[in-house]
Amino acid sequence: MLKKMCFIIGFFILAFPLLAQSFDCNKPDFGARIEDLNKDGFFIKYMEKGGISYYNYTGSCRLDIHEKYNPSIAYAFIDNQLYARIITISEREDSIEDIRSKIEKNVFKQIGTAPHEIKQDGDWWIYQWFNEKDNLRYKVKINSKTKVGKGAFYYEPLHAKLPNLKEDNDPVSLRH
Fold this sequence. Notes:
Elements: H1 2-20, H2 34-37, E1 43-49, E2 52-57, E3 72-78, E4 81-89, H3 96-111, E5 117-121, E6 124-131, E7 136-143, E8 149-155, H4 156-159
Antiparallel strand pairs: 1-2, 2-3, 3-4, 4-8, 5-6, 6-7, 7-8
């Protein structure tokens, strides 16, 4: 009986931090309110612009991309609801062909669909996906010369809440 009780107590001690975790950066709950996501206090607001609030997440969470790169990651909120995860990767040594191949393969695993649009605009390759079931869009831009990459995973219903949002102020335009 004592062993069983020790096992149960040990399980809860080890599992409690996992249960208390309110945010999963790998599968963000788009549309969720900041109050619900930030119960642990790890979201730090750093800017507000054009009706969008920007936060860094300071908790421990790693994306697959961390295995090879050191991305800059920000989260955007509209009306205190999670709108987008924005990722920037600085220059890298991989060939543009390898980068494009990895993007097509890895994003397919996340989104579950093939890109619905691939185009080239000057030095930039631009990919876009849309998951209708979850109303999620994903846009990636890769510079073929510098190999800088930018990506935005965003929730379409919140995008529609700011109909007058100018492209320069919209983080999912990936202009900056």
